[in-house]
């Protein structure tokens, strides 16, 4: 009974003084015990990796203590919980993040020194957990950190892929993919829950049965696999709260099907069962489309089914009636990947809990919210009806029923406008019938969020136009953010200390808005000196890494110009390369006198291409071919270097970002619409000015001045707002911004909001700028600038070798094919690059811009994003475990 539980809890809190201690002696003892008893090595003979393992296990013990307390506390308080469903998490390394969030990094460093080890060296032993592709997956990881730090009662659910994102190996400049054997050396950050398992069923048939006079659909599945839970504790910073990321692994069900064992073929029966594990074996490495793959759908359902069973089991532990379900549970769909959860919850509530359709539907509509991360309508997930019918026959029925009800309601509302109805329908008719997963998610969710202000505009005007018109109140946005714990405190400790010193507090680690306090010191020469020293040391670390990886020696006086992210045509790494070729060509044709004025550059590119994405792979090869030429040209020397950083991942990012002077976010924005908007605004402004001049000028001179400045600031922020970009948000730019790196960018996704925070004068923007609008209109996009044609031809004519191989790459931007507008943006791109050069020579100006970048990055903390979700979408409150 309750009394029992209470007494037990009190007794347990009585054991508090038995918690592990964090003084150096206790830490040393714990580490050495793990060397002996966990890693099972002699205390007198173990290597760095084994020392790391022991260290990790001692940290794990401390995580587990807090984790138990938090889970017990949540259970006692029974607050509304948020369940975050995502098929991808890019957690990277856990050691440093954990000891920093637990507040015991320095103690560990001391303890290790006394044992004769160096903390940094051991931390380098850890491999990345890379259970995701890119931005979306790292966002989930950042948001988990924020949910823990802000004390929200949150659970993350995901898949425990046996192989995460492939390792990128470069051979002769070509990308090769190798499996990521991340679990081969053990994973101290997870706890296997052998008793937390659920059956997941697939295939089979549905038939109608008469149960007590009620017609009931009965699914007789054809295959059962088991989902096993692996828990990853996620500690918050400055709190005892430690939440759970629960990842599911597939294993054969232990419910034996007697039939298959009776055929006498025992060996084959066992071997076939083992196939169940393939469901969670490998992460799909395409970051945008996985259309119609059976294994992918299996992964999605496996994940969703196990997670919901877990959620419902936890709910039923303390509740008798499903009426309270929506008050206690929020389910967040991270993109459409987990959107089968909607149909699955319907199925459970109807078929297993016997709530009936109306009650079930009422619950489903109240618990789900959906965040979309994409801009391109063609990137929206679709599942062929045939595939759904064979794998999940009962779910297909339910989806049809949901759609039928939806369309009937719609007809009442909008009449028989069949075009509109068919655009909104969850089922896409055509040669191949498809389920539109986004439509399913939207219809079943109470809120649909975009990931930046400009993304939300796009949703309204393009991607989900019809739905926005139907349910305008459903659509919102929460601008993405990243966690300053990982992207400043862990990855850039010296800059973090400097920030704390000048702000006089470490409170910014939990409250990023405080960074604005740096603004008042932006011109302080003492700060400048310390700031540059820190940045220079970070550049040195990066330079050492570059030399180790590529053999290229780079000068620390050069501007480190970084472009790291997944390789994609719309992200325009090709534009960057063409700019580099142009720069190379210019330097090559200079006389000695002019060369002395060149600002030296180290261009750094990194990122993975999806294995089947030919053009992206050619871009990687081109980078290597150009680098080969430039880096070995004695005419160029230190004036220009180009390096490709292989296998870009979270831990490489932690090294690269703090060492960057300039970073590129040059994704394509279509500027036809941009120009229209700019022109429209200019017109409006002129009209307003006339109005002011006629009516107010003589009487309200002061007011006039104020209004001018307001208008100018409006222009400044609005004018950059491209209405049709390709990047939903972009989060890399935020990490660079925090670290005091200047941005060279086009204005779409989150850059639009970065401009609002730090001002366009502190960045290098290109694309449609208001003063260029007339010029841009004159030169139609088909008119290719001469220099552009020239550098593309250098590639096409084999100047860098591999002429045939690069032909199709050149095709992509020549002869009117230039979909991502490389040609029309080339001149303004070069201008922005030249502006960066000019600013770099003026060290004082550059440093001020750098400080102001960090100072203006407060809004881009994922703490802010999560607070917005908690308050407006999830309706949850913090639940802080006492310490
Ligand atoms: C992804 O990383 C993103 C969008 C996707 O659309 C898929 C993947 Cl794997 C389905 C990215 C966006 O491209 C990026 O703009 C955004 O910042 C990020 O998600 C997080 O929202």
Describe this structure in words.
- It catalyses: [(1->4)-alpha-D-glucosyl](n) + phosphate = [(1->4)-alpha-D-glucosyl](n-1) + alpha-D-glucose 1-phosphate.
- It is an enzyme of class 2 (transferase).
- The protein is an alpha/beta fold and 883 residues long.
- The protein folds into three domains: 93 residues, no CATH class; 325 residues, Glycogen Phosphorylase B (Rossmann fold, 3-Layer(aba) Sandwich), CATH 3.40.50; 331 residues, Glycogen Phosphorylase B (Rossmann fold).
- Helix content is 50%, strand content 15%.
- The protein is built from 36 helices and 24 strands.
- The protein has a nine-stranded mixed beta sheet, with helices on both faces. Strands 21-20-19-22-23-24 form a six-stranded parallel beta sheet, sandwiched between helices.
- A hairpin with a 2-residue loop joins strand 8 and strand 9.
- It is globular.
- About 3% of the residues have low confidence.
- The structure holds ligand Z2T.
- Ligand Z2T binds next to helix 7.
Overall body shape: globular
Task: Give the CATH superfamily of the largest domain.
Answer: Glycogen Phosphorylase B
Let me know the largest β-sheet.
9 strands, mixed
Low-confidence stretches: 671-677, 695-699, 713-723, 769-774
H/I helix tally: 36
Topology:
Blueprint: H1 2-14, H2 24-38, H3 48-77, E1 81-85, E2 89-92, H4 95-101, H5 105-115, H6 119-123, E3 129-131, H7 135-149, E4 154-159, E5 167-171, E6 174-178, E7 191-202, E8 205-211, E9 214-220, E10 223-235, E11 242-252, H8 258-262, H9 266-274, H10 294-318, H11 325-328, E12 329-334, H12 340-352, H13 357-367, E13 368-371, E14 382-384, H14 385-391, H15 393-414, H16 418-424, E15 427-428, E16 434-436, H17 437-444, E17 447-450, H18 453-463, H19 465-470, E18 475-477, H20 484-490, H21 493-503, H22 525-550, E19 559-564, H23 573-588, H24 592-595, E20 601-606, H25 614-631, E21 640-645, H26 650-656, E22 662-665, H27 671-695, H28 701-718, H29 732-738, E23 742-746, H30 751-758, E24 764-766, H31 773-778, H32 786-796, H33 803-811, H34 822-841, H35 843-855, H36 862-874
Parallel strand pairs: 1-4, 1-12, 4-11, 12-13, 13-17, 17-18, 19-20, 19-22, 20-21, 22-23, 23-24
Antiparallel strand pairs: 2-3, 5-6, 7-10, 8-9, 10-11, 14-16, 15-16
Helix pairs in contact: 2-3, 2-5, 4-20, 7-36, 10-12, 12-13, 12-15, 14-15, 21-22, 23-25, 23-32, 25-33, 27-28, 32-33
The chain binds ligand Z2T.
Ligand Z2T binds at residues 133-136, 139, 287-288, 335, 373-374, 379, 451, 480, 727-731, 749.
